[in-house]
Specification:
The chain contains 16 helices and 13 strands. By secondary structure, the protein is of the alpha/beta class.
Length: 418
Amino acid sequence: MGLNGRRALFISYNGMLDPLGQTQVIPYMSELATRGVNITLLSFEKAKAFTEEGKVLCDELHEKLRSIGIDWHWLQYHQRPSLPATAYDVFVGTRYAKELVRKNKIELVHARAHIPATIALSLKRHTNLKMIFDLRGLMAEEYVDANHWSKSGLPYRITKATEQRIFAATDAVVTLTERIWPIIKDWKGLSGRSVHHEVIPCCVDLSVFSFSEQGRRQRRAELGLEDRFTLVYSGSLDGWYLTEEMADFFACVLQRRPDAHLLWLTTGRLERVQALMNDRKIGNSSFSVRAVSPADVPSYLSAADAGLSFIKPCFSKIASSPTKNGEYLACGLPLILNSGIGDSDALVDKWQVGALVNQFNEKHYLEIIDKIGTLVRDPDVRKKTRRVATELFDLRSVGGERYASLYERVLGNGIDGV
């Protein structure tokens, strides 16, 4: 069956005024809209959206989304106190979503992550809606792994109980990784049930992220790199990201390549990066820090020779798909990754487009540096990495196609099983 004229409500707890929300949500909806799905979007926006400036920005985005077939509605996101604020958002969101379902004759509710899925659960109980739980991560386990919650605490227990009810009600589950599905399909709520399942990693718009020789020359001239061996890290500092370990790794790179340079593309604090480098006696000429617009990221990635990403290895990260992996590969960069994060090990073990860090120590780092040096010297490396990005992370041929296929299965009559 086709999707033309089918009606879906997409609920996201990511604000659309947040660049992250725009890059992670809108492209997928746009792809579904081009396939004929009538998309209604409900998002939760931070306080900025309700200022005079924010209202102007919302009106502009509303018109842009309407032009591509997306009917956008937004409510205010409340952060503190955490549990009451979230409960309030769920209550208001459910009431508002019910009206959207009635008004727009919605057939399917697509819930992106746990809070939207809680709203979807209430909608499904009172209607004949189909439901997709788009699992963006293991919410309760992430808070435990980050040492914010205890497994014996009330927030964890409430989240897991709600998750179980969501699993028991949903018609389909999307996971970011292959590795997590054999684990969660045996959890309470899913165990013994036949539900549709699709793996859709964090994808990349390959028309935006691509290697540019002109961009490489421009950025390397701007940074004064000439022919220096350059690594890039793109993303946030600390938290899940092992910033200290990445700085240690680069200190080892300098032992092999004294001319090496590390480019930090981050909106994090400059003084944090400066302290990391100073503590390791890395001079200012050996690193740069830039906070750049999303539109400029591909040209800065093109200036590098390899992409770096160390993430805290823990249980919850089995479910994670780092967006930066696809961005690095799309721009022609081999990867330097640590093991145990989602399906990322396969990028090295199967696809051979990077080097995998299994131990955080100097001896192992030096082995990895030699391996990545060999990859960088391969004259076909950019073609290889681009080919893997196209195969695994393309927004349209991977993300769009898999979502469309899932929508067809959920709105049809068959079950693909587990």
